[in-house]
Design goal:
With 191 residues, this protein is α+β, with helices and mostly antiparallel strands. Helix content is 51%, strand content 17%. Strand 6 and strand 7 form a beta hairpin.
Length: 191
């Protein structure tokens, strides 16, 4: 099973339950730039306490590892939890929206069909850029800058830069955003 087949399965489960979600992280970045390897799926999810049991039931059984207590704690703390596919060891990180920005990104999500034919709701390229800026600022790896550069290379003319600038300011990553815009990484730096 590929990570995209797992994404299809997870998206179907969330949609069956009517739970709002967006795919973020590496998979979302690859929708707007170059493919790269990843072993996890990052999903922002709007999960309420009264939906926890139904959510956990969707992942119950031998195939998935899910910690019911971790799900409940994440809902209350607006944090994160994960589900592990024991057949592939792919990890699905579910993040609950903490800030107004997270809720806005969730609302702005768009339905896309991947090159692999998988249909799901993805973060917009602008929101992928903003989240990558924040992850980098928080001590993340250079892969976040590489992802941003790839998005700008392939989707730059369609990016709402005013929206990115507004949220970059709110998230205190304006200087980083301006540096990337003025001098995006070259293909050699990304390799």
């Amino acid at each position: 099973m590929s990570i995209y087949e797992l994404l299809r399965e997870v998206a179907e489960k969330l949609e069956l339950l009517g739970i709002p979600y967006i795919v973020t992280g590496s998979l979302a970045s690859m929708e707007y730039s170059q493919p790269r390897s990843t072993l996890d799926i990052d999903i922002v999810i709007q999960l309420q306490t009264d939906e926890a049991d139904a959510f956990v039931a969707q992942f119950a059984g031998d195939r998935f590892y899910i910690d019911t207590d971790a799900v409940r704690e994440a809902i209350l703390a607006r944090g994160m939890f994960n589900v592990i596919d024991t057949q592939t060891t792919f990890k699905i990180d579910f993040v609950l929206p903490k800030h107004i920005y997270d809720r806005r990104a969730l609302e702005r999500g768009v339905r896309r069909t991947t090159l692999n034919g998988i249909e799901a709701r993805f973060a917009t390229p602008e929101d992928v850029i903003i989240s990558k800026l924040v992850f980098y600022k928080e001590g993340g790896s250079d892969k976040h800058l590489t992802d941003i550069g790839g998005i700008l290379d392939l989707s730059g003319d369609r990016i709402d830069t005013a929206y990115v600038a507004e949220w970059a300011d709110a998230m205190d990553v304006t200087a980083l955003w301006q540096r990337i815009r003025n001098q995006p990484p070259t293909d050699q730096e990304r390799a």
